[in-house]
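Before a colleague's protein record goes any further, I have to sign it off. Would you go through it and say whether the fold makes sense for this chain? Take the sequence as given and treat only the tokens as open to question. The record follows directly below this note.
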Amino acid sequence: MEAKNHPKKSDAAPTNDLVVVISAIAPGSREKVGGRPLFERALLDCERLGLKEIYVLASLEDSRGFSPENAGLPSRNFISYRGNVARDIYRSGIVRRAFVFIDGSYLIDPRLIKFIIEHGPSCYFPDPANAENIPLAIFDKSDLEKWALGKLDLVIKNSVKLALSDIDLYNPEIRGEQEPYLVKVSSGRDALKATWTLITRNQKKVMDLPSVYIDPPFENTLTFALCHTPVTPNQVTIFNLIIAFIVGCLFWSGHFVAGAFLTYAAEILDGVDGKLARAKIMFSKLGEYECYVDFLYEHWWYVAIAVGLRHQGYEEGVWATWALLAASDVWDNILYTMSEHWYGRSLDLLSPFDASFRKIAGRRNIYALIFLVGFLLGHPYGTFRVAALWAFITATVHTYRLAKHRLLHPVSAK
């Protein structure tokens, strides 16, 4: 819901002449959250939003040894702080029409930056814990002139005060609703708390039962530890692929219980690399194509189980069971692709029922849980058949649900 007297989107400042100024004056702006200094997080978030003119306001004489080079900035994108924020920005001459001001000592949800840009000057988000502080604002040039003359109170009086509740809670990155965050960081202890907030707020919402109730404590703890190391998300992904290959080898040789236990390690690492990428703001082509790599190694497991069963003397129906599992899983992935194409969202998000069914639907984590229980009980072939049957049921349910939704909503909802 928008705030009263909210500027219309048509009045928003165009990004082609919109300037962003990130203040790196407060000590908290240099504290590392998610493995990066806070002001640098804001800079990278702005770049991801397509903003081009981004400046950092900082003092070259502070105790943290700031320099444009260390921040990855050309010198022309640096504003030297001489004691008055507004006056220093004004004297730099960079503001032509409007500018976004970001206090770099806050962990700011990127959705807030996007929201304030879309709605244009003059708006601001106050600190939820201290309304006198302004972590994020968008002002025009006349506002800056008043601020530089010491009339910030007048600027605030004539600006729209926004609230975190004004933005759409739906976050496509986590496939669900999530309260936005705006957290002040003043010390190393605050930075650790903010890092934990960042990790836990990036937990995807529509997931299967293991991902909701079993995996998060392990994923979050490992992600938190890795945030303070040079380890990259790609390195975690590659290590996970090695483990996934070993799992297949164990299944192939008939070591079903050992392989089933190791699938859990692969499951955890698969969640860690995504959370680490969002925490460190380190995205790559490997991350974009990870779902396809996951698909390949999952099917390597299914083939390996079939071969392992044959090695143990099971013959009748092993390959038919594998074919049912593989075909059902492939068809299910095709259904998800069609849903994305038609409606711009996952099949799991088309209705509350689909979101609920996602918790138990046949996917890698559910199959891995079936394998672990069944293999521990000493029924490898029966377990494989149960997984194949559940894959078929899942694909059947999803086929019906997508067909029904297509009949009720034939027009794309993108």
Q: What stands out?
A: Confidence is low (pLDDT under 50) at residues 1-14. DSSP finds 16 helices and 13 strands in the chain. Residues 9-171 form a domain with the Spore Coat Polysaccharide Biosynthesis Protein SpsA; Chain A fold (CATH 3.90.550.10). The longest strand covers residues 18-23.
